[in-house]
Amino acid sequence: MEKKNIIRLELLALLGLIIILALIHITKPIEFIRERMDTLGYIGVFFIMFLSSATIVIPLPGLAGVIVAGASLNPLLVGIVGGVGSALGELSGYIAGCGGKVVIEKKKIRMYKTTKKWMKRNGFITIFIAAALPNPFFDVAGLAAGALDYPIWEFLLACSAGKILKCVALAYLGYALV
């Protein structure tokens, strides 16, 4: 085997190990949320959703927090607070899109190009639908909105509406499961 192939295999094995460790580590925050939800309350829901949405590309289990919170708090309020926190956290992707237009445009990412096309045709609906679905790729919509100079208030309105809808549904799921 060539040295290049050996290095690639080693890097692939390392990546696999990192992914496995990350998956094991993700379950710890869910337990933390469950144990402390009565203490954290609605402010905790807001910050959990804000932080989980503010991370670009790295998924954090914020939606699990909404489900758990819906079981012990008012599900409608959990959904509203969680949705607003999540939408505000998504501003990180929007701002990255504003600042990284040149870099983003140079990359030939198919998902970005498709999202950009949808954004140009019907930005509000695209953002709303992408935000309402349990979708790990929403960051692409935020990046596209920022790169296209989509109005920030329209982005926040569409994103908030979609995120609130999703969070209310998940909070009621948590309520129903208990």
Please provide a written account of the structure.
With 178 residues, the protein is mostly helical. The chain has one domain. The protein is 85% helix and 0% strand. The chain contains eight helices and no strands. The chain has helices spanning 3-54, 62-72, 75-89, 91-99, 101-106, 110-132, 138-147, 152-177. Helix 2 (62-72) runs antiparallel to helix 3 (75-89) and helix 3 packs antiparallel against helix 8 (152-177). The longest helix is centred in the first third of the chain and has 52 residues, at 3-54. The chain is flat.
Overall shape: it is: flat
The total count of strands amounts to 0
* H-E order: HHHHHHHH
- Unreliably modeled segments: none
Beta-strand residue percentage: under 5%
Assign a percent range to the helix content. Answer: over 70%
Please give the domain count: 1
Biggest sheet overview: none
The gyration radius over C-alpha positions equals 18 Å
Please count the helical segments: 8
Class from secondary-structure proportions: mainly alpha
Mean pLDDT: 82
From the N-terminal CA to the C-terminal CA, the straight-line distance is 56 Å
Protein name: VTT domain-containing protein
Subcellular location: Cell membrane
InterPro entries: DedA_domain, VTT_dom
Keywords: Cell membrane, Membrane, Transmembrane, Transmembrane helix
